[in-house]
Every structure is written in C-alpha cells, then in structure tokens.
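Suppose a colleague, Dr. K., hands you the sequence of a protein chain of 336 amino acids and asks what its three-dimensional shape might be. Before reaching for any lab equipment, you can write down a predicted structure in token form. Begin with the sequence itself:
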Amino acid sequence: MATEHLNSALRAPTASRPYPMAKPGYGKRTMPEQRPRSADDFVLLPTRERYIAGFIDQLPDGASMDVKSLAKQLPLYGQQAVGSALKALATAGYLRRVRCLVGAQGQVRWVSRTFWSRTARDNEWWAATEVTPAATAAQPCAPAETPAPPEPAPPAPVVPVPVPVAPPQRAVPVVPPQRVAASAEPSPAYLALARLGRIDSRLTLSADDCAVLEALAAAWFDRGVDADYLTRALTAGLPPGVDSPVGFVRRRLTDKIPAYVPAAPAPPAPGAPVHRVMLECTKCGTPGRPEALPDGLCRPCRLPDADASPEVPVGRPSEEDVRTFTAGLRDLLRSP
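The predicted structure, expressed as tokens, is then:
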C-alpha cells in the first residue's frame, strides 16, 4: 500500500550560478517584523505557489523579481505560470509591487520594487506599512550614501571644582498662585460678533451675548470663512424689527453654517524629503492608490470578466435587412 508523504514546504531549487541581481534601486525588499523560517511556511498554498514562494523567500534583497528572471531559475514553470503564481501570492498577502520615484534634481526615474513578507499580511497592514512615509523610512526609496560621522574627540579630564555651601536660609512660606485676570486678546469670532451692532443696530449684542455665541461663530471660522463672510451672512436680509438679537444671531449661526471644504495640502518645505511612492498592480503594473488595489491587483486583473460587455453590431443594416423589415410591416398593415 502506497503511503502519501505530505511535505509542508517544498525545498527551493539549488542554483548552479548566482541569481541575477537587479539594478541598484530595483529588486526584492524584505519587510520587517517577520517570523523565523520554519518547515510550515506557505503550508496553505497550492503546490506551485508553495514552490515559488519558497524560492523567492531564499533570495537576497535586491534580487531581480521580474517574471522572466524567475522563470529562468525555475525549471518546472514558465513565465505564464510564474506570473499567475505571483498574482496568487499577492492575493494571499505575501508580496506587493511598489513604484518609486528616485533620483536627484533634474534626473529622476520610476523604479519598481517587490516587497516580500514571509508572513501573510492583510490589505490594511500593507497600506499602513508600505505606502506611508513611516515605511519609507524603514525601506527608503532613494537611499543616499551618508559619510561616516567623525570619531568623537576624547573627553577632557574633569577637574573637580569645590562647590560653595550656601548658609542655611529661613524657610519661605509657600503662597498659592493667585488668580490672574486673562489679558489675552479676544478671538476673531468674538470680534466679528461685537462688530455686528456697528454695522446694523438691529443686531447689537452685549458682551455676555458675544461670549455665549462665540463657540458657534468659531465653528464658521473652522470651516475656512473669514470675518467679512460671517458678517455678510448674518446681516443679509434682516427683517424690519429684531426683537431678540441674540436669538436671531444664534438661529442664523446654526442654520446657515457653510459646508465643510477640506483645505488644500500645504506644499512641502524647501529641502524636506518628498514621499514619492505608488502601489502598482502585481500582474499588469498599473499604478494606483492602496484602496484601489486590494490584494495588490487592479479591478480588471482581479475580476477579468467584470468589464466584459456584450458585443454590439456596428454599422448600418444591409439592404436585405431593410427589405425584410419593410415586408413585415406591410403584412401587419394588411392583416385585419
């Protein structure tokens, strides 16, 4: 009776020559926070994916990760099989392809890197670790060679200096801090409310009224408006008489608050490092944001039949089709 031998991890092929390395800046990048290698690595993957994953895991950082180079080193599978396996490994959470913009001023280029994790990760982990600037610090896109810091000079000998001893002084009683009147200038929201009475006497507010409505007016400033915009919104179309200015202003501050518009991102400071990393599809290389590439795949590669539409005949109908259609209409007209 034949006995089935179950091997959890397939042994990677032994290369007869060194594996080709990619150009500086390209190739494989190993992610941090991985568990040690064991015989149970990739045990849940199919045979082909487990075989290729074991081979990739043994490659050093900087190794060429394109399909053609991998297929040359894997005698059991061709380029199409290797490409399908890489897609499956990306879906399982073992790798992501990232496009980085590297180079100095005036000479920049896009390079593709393959980030590899022996431990399967979900989309949230990849998006937070690989594409954010924090991960770029761990795996820099454009590493610059920094000179070694000079060796520190030997410390000078420390000469003990006698410290004069102060004579004992009489204990000073601790006085609790007294309440100091706030001398800060009023906020822009408070000043805008205080000026309403000078623009239109029907909206004259007292100091207590301005203090009560200050938080509502500050919410307008938080949404990007200025004092002139707030004043025009509160004084436009006033009725002939306003019995309660504080109630009227409170109602307008609540009902007419503008919509929130996100502020434009501030330009980076001169000399600050710019984060230039973009995730790309593992199969076709289409760049995009992490939320648009779940499992490292774009929508056409993830759902190849999603965009397929039924073929629509293009062109004008032939003369025979027109005669047939006309004859059918005539038969309908003749029938009682």
